[in-house]
Amino acid sequence: MTVALLLSLAGLALIDSTSIGTLFIPVWLLLAPGPVNARRILGYLATIAAFYLAVGLLLVWGGSRLADALGGALDNRGVLWAQLVLGVAMLALSFRYDGKRRPRTGGVLRWRDRATAGDSSARWLVGLALLAALAEVATMLPYLGAVGLLATSGVGAVAVVVLLAGYCLVMVLPAVLLLAARVARPALVEPVLARLNAWIVTKAGNALGWILGIAGFLIARDAAARLELFDLIGR
């Protein structure tokens, strides 16, 4: 386990903390009129985190078994060069989302309608969390990138569980902090939540560019480090 791996995982987790399931829906739930039921929202966030932890463990262990079956082929320089090209391509693609195009907010508004249409019961929020997680899991590039880093890092099974659990906690941490602030100081936090909601509705369509760019950079950086390209530059 290296510092670079930990920093990469932390960065990817913070990116994942801004997704529809981990930030947008919690903001909308916190903006609902009336007192906030912290236990139910925490249950929602726990469901999101547990779902991604389970999926991540399946992918990491499945990927590790595949790597063993391939006899270390994933450490082949050709594979690492392909990973580097993929990361650079994602970084280049991110520049297409330059914020000058008209944002597509239809999908975001549909998720807001789903979040505010229910009765906010514990069962409804758990179902909403699972729906959001299932809808996003295939498109959460930072999380898939983190799973890929863990699958090829060579760390032990216990470390994988701890790192993925920590990743999922960081992923929901901003929403937990917003919840705590909303309960403790609602008058101060509600304007912040309202501004966040306005940003989500108008700017969230461009967030994919940032996600692609940062995830691409981290994936490319990992490949470059394992190819020892930084050592060549430093000579």
Automatic annotation (TrEMBL):
This is GAP family protein. It comes from Micromonospora arborensis. It comes from the Bacteria. Keywords: Membrane, Transmembrane, Transmembrane helix. The chain crosses the membrane at residues 6-29, 41-60, 80-97, 124-145, 157-184, 196-220. InterPro entries: Gap/Sap. The lineage of its organism: Bacteria, Bacillati, Actinomycetota, Actinomycetes, Micromonosporales.
